[in-house]
């Protein structure tokens, strides 16, 4: 083991005293940062272990009643797969070569989720609502979080920096708030350990989180062309490159913060991002970008990972009229349309944003709504997890009849009159519309639009909305047009 690697291990604080002593010897066997003390393994999935050793070295790994052996290849890489385990623990994992044995202690087996995105996923418990009370009550040995340190690279990496920490008042203030509250809700409902791998970076574009192969779609080829143009004109574009930084260049975050952990078995992904793409140049392609990213991650993990994401919250000053063009609303609608991908779900938070803060403080509810989807879709709980979602529209004279999915008990907040619907004719000039609930459908009309061509709901950066269902979960904004 090189001196550089030893220093990295010592600085990371990841390893037990025994491991540090082992690392300082001349032995070769090494583990990635994510395989370390306090980690959580995904239950009922093969235990995948990997690392590095001298070429040709025999490596043995064991945990519980299982053990396996392999030989490091000519590049020093090794991998061992052990049988799946049921939830429980703590266990001790041992990995050894011909000279030493590494020990990873306090290992639990339970549910493992990955959380990623930009600043609203990164936002810590200490800066979210009721921080002092939440931190004081955060002593949960069965909840652990691994936070990936920020890094951006042009080529895929093999390891990350980070460490597993147990939920405790000493640590949880720095945890991702969405990640912690999501994990806590699962932990309370499932009564088994939950591990959350947190890998996010504020202010980042979805393109940075996509593996380069994701840009193979023809509609996305322009992004790679633009990247080449920038590289060829570095001096002319120096100010632009400096302002956005390498963390916003194509694939740089995937390479450094996602690719190294794709061997680690997880149950699924929760995602909170999109604000950075709500701009003139990228919002109209967000659906293609986001869909490609999801498929790219699934390809890298080798399975159809559940992928649950947060729709953008309401933000900024409320518009008096429904705008024809709203980049923030376009990204929301792109997120809604991404539900066409299998094994996806969306937490709608159009009701809990803050006009003057892009980082709404109520992360408890965001985490809970994501967890509802996981409990219903992955763990078989018979619970509602979505508000009404637009299905289709039938134009009949001056009326438009809107049908929805998840309509059980279609209603409004506090049974107030419906708001948030706008209607337009061929001139594309939207006006506020009347709307009424008829069973499981909504009828929309306006005396000012005799022949309607489109209906929109909740369209704008901070729209007024109140459509819900029996669960109290809000309806997603939508549009019937492609204007």
Sum this structure up briefly:
The chain has 483 residues and is α/β, with parallel strands linked by helices. The chain has eleven helices and 23 strands.
Descriptive key words:
483 residues; alpha/beta; eleven-stranded mixed β-sheet; four-stranded antiparallel β-sheet; 11 helices; disordered N terminus
Task: Tell me what the structure shows.
It contains eleven helices and 23 strands. With 483 residues, it is an alpha/beta fold. The strands form five sheets. Strands 1, 3, 4, 6, 7, 8, 9, 10, 11, 12 and 13 form an eleven-stranded mixed beta sheet that branches. Helix 5 crosses helix 11 and helix 9 crosses helix 10. The protein is elongated, with a radius of gyration of 25 Å. The N and C termini lie far apart (60 Å). The N terminus is likely disordered.
- Write down how many β-strands occur, each being a DSSP E stretch of 2 or more residues: 23
What's the shape?
A: elongated
Number of helices: 11
Residue stretches low in confidence (pLDDT < 50, at least 5 long) are 1-26, 239-244
Mean pLDDT: 92
Distance between the termini: 60 Å
Percent of residues in beta strands: 25-35%
Query: How much is the radius of gyration in Å?
Result: 25 Å
Secondary structure topology:
Layout: H1 3-12, H2 17-23, E1 40-42, E2 47-52, E3 58-63, E4 66-71, E5 77-82, E6 88-96, E7 101-117, H3 119-122, H4 131-136, E8 140-148, E9 162-167, H5 177-190, E10 194-200, H6 221-232, H7 238-244, H8 252-258, E11 268-272, H9 286-301, E12 307-310, H10 327-337, E13 344-347, H11 363-378, E14 389-396, E15 399-405, E16 411-412, E17 421-424, E18 431-432, E19 434-438, E20 441-445, E21 454-457, E22 467-468, E23 478-479
Parallel strand pairs: 1-7, 7-10, 7-11, 8-10, 11-12, 12-13
Antiparallel strand pairs: 2-5, 3-4, 3-6, 6-7, 8-9, 14-15, 15-20, 16-22, 17-18, 17-21, 19-20, 21-23
